[in-house]
Amino acid sequence: MTLAPLYFAFGSNLSAPRLRARLPAAKPLGRAALPGYRLTFAKPGRDGSGKGDLRADPRGQVWGRLYRLNPRDLSLLDAVEGPGYQRVALWVHCHGRRQRAWLYRAKAPISQLLPFDWYLHHLRWGAMEARLPARYQRHLAQQPCCIDPDPQRAAREWRLYPASSGPSAGPGFDSAIDPLR
Predict the structure, then answer these.
(1) Where does this protein hold substrate (predicted)?
(2) Do the annotations mark residue 116 as ligand-binding?
(3) 173 is in an annotated binding site
(4) Any known ligand binding at 11?
(5) Which residue, among 107, 124, 105, has the nearest Cα to 115 in the 3D structure?
(6) Residue 119, annotated as binding a ligand
(7) Can you name the residues that pair with 89 across neighbouring β-strands?
(8) Is the pLDDT confidence value at 179 over 90?
(9) Is 181 strand, coil or helix?
(10) Residue 2 pLDDT > 80
C-alpha cells in the first residue's frame, strides 16, 4: 500500500477554504515548520502580483500547514499552481516529527513583487486557522501588499471568507476575528 502524499502549504493554500475549493479531499494534519528558509513573494503570478515563494536563510523558518492528499490530487495541484512553480520535496516538522512533504517553489523568482491584498489575506486567514505562532502572524500582518486592479477577480477571492474579514474591514481582519488586534 502506498501512503498518500504530504503537502506543505505556506502560500495561499495555507487557507483551508482556499485549498478545499481546489482539492476538496485534502486533509489538514496540523501546523508545520520548514527551517532554513524564509517566506518571500518573489514568484511572479500570471496576474503580475507576487505569490508565495521560499528563499534559503539559515536563520529563517517558514510556517505552514501540512495536508494529506489523494495521490491524484498532486497532478491537480501541479495544474493549479501552473508552470511558474516547480514541485519539490523538503523536510518539515509537524507534531514533533520530521516528515518529507511536497511544496512549490518559483522557477524564476523576481524580487520587488507585492502580493495582492486578497492573496495575503489567504495567508493570514490560514495562519489564524492553523494557530501558527503569533510572531509569524504579526510578520504576515506587516507584509506590504497592493490592491488588485481586477475587481471581479478580487471579489471571487474575497468570497471565500466572512464579509467582516474582507477589504471593507481595512488592511487586516475584523477585530472580532483577528486575535492579533
Answers:
(1) 7-12, 119
(2) no
(3) no
(4) yes
(5) 124
(6) yes
(7) 102
(8) no
(9) coil
(10) no
Q: Which helix (H) or strand (E) holds 73?
A: helix 71-81
Which whole number is the average pLDDT over 19-40?
96
The three cell numbers locating residue 161: 471568507
pLDDT band at 70 (very low <50, low <70, confident <90, very high): very high
Query: Which grid cell is 167?
Result: 477589504
| Domain topology for 6-169 | Hypothetical upf0131 protein ytfp (3.10.490)
The full set of domain ranges for the chain reads 6-169
Q: In this predicted structure, what is the pLDDT of residue 82?
A: 93
d(CA 76, CA 104): 13
Q: What are the residue numbers of the active site?
A: 81
Question: Per-residue pLDDT for 145 more than 90?
Answer: yes
Residue 43 has a CB neighbour count (10 Å cut-off) of 25
CA triple 108-110-115, angle to 5 deg: 115
